[in-house]
Task: structure prediction
Amino acid sequence: MRSTDQPAGPPREPVTSAVTITHRDPDRTETFRTTARVVGLLYLAGMVVGIGGDFLIESILTSQDHLATVAAKSTPLALGVVLWLATVVGDAAHGIVMYPVLKRRSERTAVAYLVARIIDATLIAVMALLIVIQIPVSREYLAAGASGAAQTSYLQALSAVLSQGHLYAYEIAMTALGVAGLILSWALLRANLVPRPLAMWGIGGYAVLLIGSVLQIFGFHLNSIHAIPGGLWELFIGIWLIVKGFTTKQPIVRD
Result:
């Protein structure tokens, strides 16, 4: 009879397989959730404060012979400047709050975004300074009314230079914001922190803002149309981050 026993071979190694699972660190998830809410609130608050400040300032400085009225309207003008200075704090806060989030993907990206935001904030502060200087210029203009046309013409020219200077500071700040927004949107896309269409919207919106701001600096008058796509994105992303937060699922591999 033939034996059916097979000769014993070398022992087989246990078969292992890599299994990808989804893991959530509760502490990290809660930290990301808090960061997302803070960033979302910064977007929404910055929009409200910036629009309010712009309304107060433009309603005074765009009036005819504004030097004759700025001194009398110094309080609302100063309030508008204070509101813009609040956006300076918010712009810098964006870079600081997002730094640890972006650093997990790339430290260079995190640093670049922080630097771009600080440049943006600094230029807005310069803009605010040039605006508030209009108040003492206006007072000198009123005081020089009886001194002759030469003095008043000089002060009008100075006011015009200050106005042009604050517009240049603003547009250069928006250029820095466009760069910062592109860095952020690209990082959000690469790290899958928000849905892909939302990140792509940010890239497109900030690209339009960047190009439009450069054109404004070179004398093209776009009437802020180039700021609409990015502005709508900031409104939407602000609400999204408060309600949904960042995507925090992190795949790990276990043997």
Observations:
- The first strand starts at residue 19 and ends at 23.
- Residues 25-247 form one domain.
- The helical segments are 26-61, 67-70, 74-103, 107-132, 134-143, 149-190, 196-217, 228-243.
- Residues 1-8, 13-23, 250-255 have pLDDT under 50 and may be disordered.
